[in-house]
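User: If you would, consider this record:
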Amino acid sequence: MKQREQAGSDMPEELSAQGQASNQEAQGERLARFLAHAGVASRRHAEELIAQGRVRVNGTIITAQGTRILPGQDRIVVDGKEIQAKAPHAYLLLHKPAGYVSTVSDPEGRATVLDLLPPELRSLRLYPVGRLDRDTSGLLLLTNDGAFAQHLTHPRYEKEKHYEVQVKGIPTERTLQALRDGVTFTEDDGKHYTSSPARTRKLSSTEQSSWLTLTIHEGRKRQVRRMLQAVDHPVLQLRRVGLGSLTLRGVTPGKWRHLTPAEVQTLLA
């Protein structure tokens, strides 16, 4: 950090050493800018807080405008309250393998989708947008942007979800048409729900099972499994291969990639 003129010889050793490092490397962020980005106040109001001596950095009162700090290293306190930097928004596309639960933590100690991410991403407080059940694999989004997650999970804006599913038996064309028309299934609370029309077609069949494609725009709990159970073709394997225009292309099971800004904007459109 630099411009700690008022601290003089009473400046703590830790503060002085960090200040020298910042001067030498021209690093850090302006204190007022940091406070504004952390949501403490507007930039102008943050400058007033500094001028009034209400801001401490590593225990030292700072009144000089233009002071630079190192977010994540320096301890910033305003009116006795420590201020943490807001994590930058992140948007990930994860290829979830079967066997992982789509939660931040699991009381039963099972592996979660966050276990697939490196520590630097887990520290951003990411969480899944919607869910894939433990036995389902495929495309799952993670973010720390609450507005983005709320938009994608709101029924009004839900995107089409594309699945490939292996079912027991060989569905007839009449069965496929029933899925296209909407089928009624029972939810956890015992209530009956009729699905909206789906798009589906048969990919391949053996004597004992078939692979289908299925596209829906709803996101009710275990919906695909319940729809197929309702037409007497229980699911053997299920994977989500797309969400809106997003696909798993180039992302192998257990791996992830950042969404591009254009992809984020398309999902919000």
Residues 2-26 have pLDDT under 50 and may be disordered. The chain is about 25% helix and 30% strand. Helices lie at 13-25, 31-37, 43-51, 119-122, 146-153, 173-181, 223-230, 261-268.
